[in-house]
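Page 37, top half.
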Amino acid sequence: MTMVHSVTIPRSILPSDGRFGSGPSKIRVDQMRTLFEAGTDLMGTSHRQPPIKHLVASIQEGLHDLFSLPDGYEVVLGNGGASAFWDIVSCCLVRQRAACGSYGSFSGSFATTMAAAPFIDDPAIYESRPGTYRLPEYMDAVDAYCWAHNETSTGVAAPVRRVAGSAEQGALTIIDATSGAAALPVDITQTDAYYCSPQKALGSDGGLWIAMLSPAAIERADIIQREANEAGSARWIPRFLSLQLAINNSRKHQTLNTPAIATLIMLERQVRWLNDKGGLTWSTARCTQSAETLYSWATRSDFAAPFVTDPDARSHAVVTIDLDDAIDANEIVAALAANGIRDTFGYRKLGRNQLRVGVFPSVEPGDVEALTHCIDYVVEHR
């Protein structure tokens, strides 16, 4: 029998670009070209000087337009990535207790971070099995409701809407949008903090967090910071995790600490590209087209099936496909990689015999179609 990884896929059916990572995701050639061209003037420049501040201002303006931010909402940037923002939420946005949805590795980690904070109460955690989602429910004495728009580990997309009654109790709605932002539709008015990292749909590198904050979230951060500064307060907010400092710096179009300038250059170019193409309406439609190509293929296949059984919960950003037990997903991934098709492996902690495909806006829908033909070819010739 032919070793699967030695299968040579005909060039005629290969995708034009074989990058399908769920994060870091594909960075477009145009962004790399911009990095080379703009980098001559910008790389090695202080982030507190006009050239970089103009770059950050362009990013903020572009994201404001992309997400149609309401009056009073601000685009805030900080160092450390979305996982750092989990700690920022516990330090700076939860006054006493959060309620969290937990339905995969990343939403679960968000909830775990709330549980680890020593100066707030243990969160109420609403769990569901992988491949499904569960949103937190209304509870007295909760001042923040938290969940993930898109669970990257399982390919589940959850609704973004305020918990009934939460606005009346003054609670914030805080959404981890790392793999959902710019790939899934969203009404930002339903959130107070919609935050992400740029290495998914925003097509850049990691190490940065971006948050769209409501006036209520900005006010909450200010109040908690002032309380933490009072003598005898049990709450400690490190400067690196201070949302108030991040807000103040972002208003000056800079970050608290030195950012990776290359990340900013590629991010600015991607946001400009998305808006030029038609904004969120265009990008979400493109992701939907790619995702439906994969789900339809898997549904028709005699050896594959969508992992998420509820069509309404299937992500249009990260697609997870289970394979028949007779076909080793690791062998298929290896064969695809040997032919230049990369990062189709399932999430390691989930431990399923499955493929996982990032279908962010940078990925050409035609390449997703080609991927399905390549998988079929490898299975047929294994």
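Page 37, bottom half:
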Amino acid sequence: MQVVIISGLSGSGKSIALNVLEDAGYYCVDNLPAPLIVNLVDHSRGRQHRHVAVAIDMRSGESITMLPQQLETLNAQQIQTRFIFLNARNDILIQRFSETRRRHPLTAENITLEEAIQREREALATLAALGHHIDTSSLGPNALRLFIKDFIAECKTPSPLTLLFESFGYKHGIPLDADLVFDVRCIPNPHYDPKLRELTGIDPEVIGFLEALPEVSRMTQDIRCFLDTWLPVYMRDNRAYLTVAIGCTGGQHRSVYFAEKLALHFRDLTHVLVRHRSLTEYRNHYTRR
């Protein structure tokens, strides 16, 4: 049996994620108190459900603090568990609640929406490190659906560590889900060439432009050397996921190129995933061992 647990901040997209899993054939339960998850798994096994997805968040109150203990119990029972934690910046969450006119679950008469979001963030801080962290700040619903579909596909590929290379644009902010961040804005920008402006770092013309620059080769080598040195350490630390974010100004040319280039190097070492946060089309690539 495989159990996917979804948690995160209110307004970060948990309902969208759960709907994607339901469409993929998972038996889904929303707003389950953490102490009941083992009972749910026992019930699901009796009903011969092979794939179960559960949303657990602050709506169930303080019982969510028992989630790590429940996960340990499931792992001891040889239940395959995957954890998704959805996050977003405070200003984005405030905007989403304003647009939908929903009440935050921690809203009270004596605190503001921003204060409620901050309280929830502090209460969930220890859960963010339990699994796959996704920053939905700059993701529309369709992009988030693609990310969750990618996560489902990754669940079918056993690997000691999933290495995610994520390109982004600094003008949109550094992704909250980044474990390591490399800044490639010092590389000449193809944006200033009119012939390359509308292209991306995946297009051959942009690749040719960048690979003609000596500093691109040196930057690639330096980042690759750092990861070659430290990736085994992260693996020994029993990390299931490591997100390496590569940033340029707009997230269209340089960061996209570097993310793709680095992914090619590491594909023989572990399971590799590539995401391009700032591209209009989210092109996701998997390279399996």
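Margin note: The first strand starts at residue 2 and ends at 8.
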